[in-house]
Amino acid sequence: MDAIQNILIKDDEVKEIPCLLLGIGVTLLFEIIILGMFFYINQRIFEMLGGNWPDGIVQSATYLAFFWALFILLGRWFLYKERLKAFHTHILPQEEEQVILSEDVGQYRRNIQMLMATEQQRPLIQWINKALLRFKLNQSVEEVSQLIQYEREMSLNHLDNSLSTVRYLAWAIPSIGFIGTVLGIGAGLGNINEGKAAVVAKLNVAFDTTLVALILSLFLMLVLHYIQREEEAVVLKQEAYCMQYLVNRLYIPKSKV
Fold first, then answer.
1. How many other C-beta atoms can be found within 10 angstroms of the C-beta atom of residue 81?
2. Backbone dihedral region of 14: left (phi > 0), alpha (psi from -120 to 50 degrees) or beta?
């Protein structure tokens, strides 16, 4: 799994081109498996899965879009797991009675820099680093709180924007299926002189493309909403962590106010 994670992720972002290449590879493998099942499954199911070429090319396009989107979501799942690890680093004091003074910021930031040099730069650690620097420069707890809220909003917007490709593919899959239906109906009407059987065969393929596409789209949307919900939950958890262990611990002695 680590090898796949290294392929899909770079600099805390999912790389969509490698996801596409993996999607192409899995689609080809899936098509080979379907062709190999020719003698072992019902002919009707074989045709529905797109085993007959060139009629099955539409199903192949939906498979490609589906697997591409799945690999992007898999990469996002890996990122989600990596971001959860930041909560176990304990770079901030955990004891309730312990406070953070301005003169302590330097040591905390040095610890963070050492952590960032040896591990992936996870968002929570970056938030804390920025907040400590803001407190060191401005001596204002309110500004640190505003910074955390700003980072939360920016992170949520970034998560939403970075899902645009997956949302497009989830929309494109049923659209490709409808295109296959239109092409199949046209082919069926073109074979009307060959008899009822020829027309029905083409219409079967036509409606199969939409059926397969809708099933794939339903599953993809389920995974998409689950991943998005978990990612947004991590962002809110990061905010709560910073408020509890950083903002609420910042202390400015009265002599410095």
1. 12
2. beta
